C-alpha cells in the first residue's frame, strides 16, 4: 500500500508577523524549527521510512524537509526541489499585514482573496522589485510561467504536472513519499487526491509542522488519512 506524507513547513517569520508570504523567501521562525523537529520525531516514532522527498525552492520548506528527515534519521533520503510546489503567489498582497489589509479592504474581501478557489489577488507586475522574474532560481522558466499572483485553482494547475510526472509515479512504484511544502500547494494537491469540491476546499486548513499521512490504494485513491 503506497504511503504519502504531507508536511506544511513550520511557522515562518512572516507567519509569526501575520504577513502575506507567498513566493517571498522568508526563513522559519524559532517555533517553526521546533515544529519541524517534533514532526521528524513523530515520523520516527511511527516507523515511517521514506524512499524519496519532494519540496519547493523556498527556504522555509527546504529547511522543514531537512529537519523532518534529520530527526527521523533519514537525512540521506534523496530530495527533489521544484518551484511547482511553491506556496501560492499572493501578488501585491505579499509582505502586507493581514489585519491591516482587512481593515483597509474589509474582512470579507480579504477572506475571499485568501480562501476562494478561483479569485485572484491584486497582481504584481513583472517589473516590480519583488517579482519572481528578478529571482535567478526561476531564470529557467518561460516568463509567461512566472506568476504575478495566484488563486488556489492556478496553484493546482501549476502543481498538478509535478504530481503526474514525479510524485504519482513514485507512489505507483510503491515508494513511501514525503512532500514538505506549503499550506496552499498542499491544499491544492489534497483537493486533487481527495476529490474535494471547489466550495469545500475553502474550509480545508493544513496546520504547520504536523505530518499528514495518506495510506493509498493501488489506484492512488485514499484508503486512510490521519495526522501524526
From TrEMBL:
A Pfam family reported for this protein in Swiss-Prot or TrEMBL: His_Phos_1
Molecular function, one GO term: phosphoglycerate mutase activity
Keyword hit for NAD: no
Binding positions (substrate): 8-15, 21-22, 60, 87-90, 98, 114-115, 183-184
A biological process term (GO) from this entry: glycolytic process
Taxonomic path: Bacteria, Bacillati, Bacillota, Bacilli, Lactobacillales
Protein family (similarity comment): Belongs to the phosphoglycerate mutase family. BPG-dependent PGAM subfamily.
Keyword check for Cell division: no
Residues of the active site: 9 (tele-phosphohistidine intermediate), 87 (proton donor/acceptor)
Reaction(s) this enzyme catalyzes, per UniProt: (2R)-2-phosphoglycerate = (2R)-3-phosphoglycerate
Annotated SUPFAM superfamilies: Phosphoglycerate mutase-like
Metabolic or biological pathway, per its Swiss-Prot or TrEMBL entry: Carbohydrate degradation; glycolysis; pyruvate from D-glyceraldehyde 3-phosphate: step 3/5
Protein name: 2,3-bisphosphoglycerate-dependent phosphoglycerate mutase
Domain of life from the UniProt record: Bacteria
Site (Transition state stabilizer) residue list: 182
EC number: 5.4.2.11
Alphabetical keyword list: Gluconeogenesis, Glycolysis, Isomerase
General function of this protein: Catalyzes the interconversion of 2-phosphoglycerate and 3-phosphoglycerate.
Amino acid at each position: 500500500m503506497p504511503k504519502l506524507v504531507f508536511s506544511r513547513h513550520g511557522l515562518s517569520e512572516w507567519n509569526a508577523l501575520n504577513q502575506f508570504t507567498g513566493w517571498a523567501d522568508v526563513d522559519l521562525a524559532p517555533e517553526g524549527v521546533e515544529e519541524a523537529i517534533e514532526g521528524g520525531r513523530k515520523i520516527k516514532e511511527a516507523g515511517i521510512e521514506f524512499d524519496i522527498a519532494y519540496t519547493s525552492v523556498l527556504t522555509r520548506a527546504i529547511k522543514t524537509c531537512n529537519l523532518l528527515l534529520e530527526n527521523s534519521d533519514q537525512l540521506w533520503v534523496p530530495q527533489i526541489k521544484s518551484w511547482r510546489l511553491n506556496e501560492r503567489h499572493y501578488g501585491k498582497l505579499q509582505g502586507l499585514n493581514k489585519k491591516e489589509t482587512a481593515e483597509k479592504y474589509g474582512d470579507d474581501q480579504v477572506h475571499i482573496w485568501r480562501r476562494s478557489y478561483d479569485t485572484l489577488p491584486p497582481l504584481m507586475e513583472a517589473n516590480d522589485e519583488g517579482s519572481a522574474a528578478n529571482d535567478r532560481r526561476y531564470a529557467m522558466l518561460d516568463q509567461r510561467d512566472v506568476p504575478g499572483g495566484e488563486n488556489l485553482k492556478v496553484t493546482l494547475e501549476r502543481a498538478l504536472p509535478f504530481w503526474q510526472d514525479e510524485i504519482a509515479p513514485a507512489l505507483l512504484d510503491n515508494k513511501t513519499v514525503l512532500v514538505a511544502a506549503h499550506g496552499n500547494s498542499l491544499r491544492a494537491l489534497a483537493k486533487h487526491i481527495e476529490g474535494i469540491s471547489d466550495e469545500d476546499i475553502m474550509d480545508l486548513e493544513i496546520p504547520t509542522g504536523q505530518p499528514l499521512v495518506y495510506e493509498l490504494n493501488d489506484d492512488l485513491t485514499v484508503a486512510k488519512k490521519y495526522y501524526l
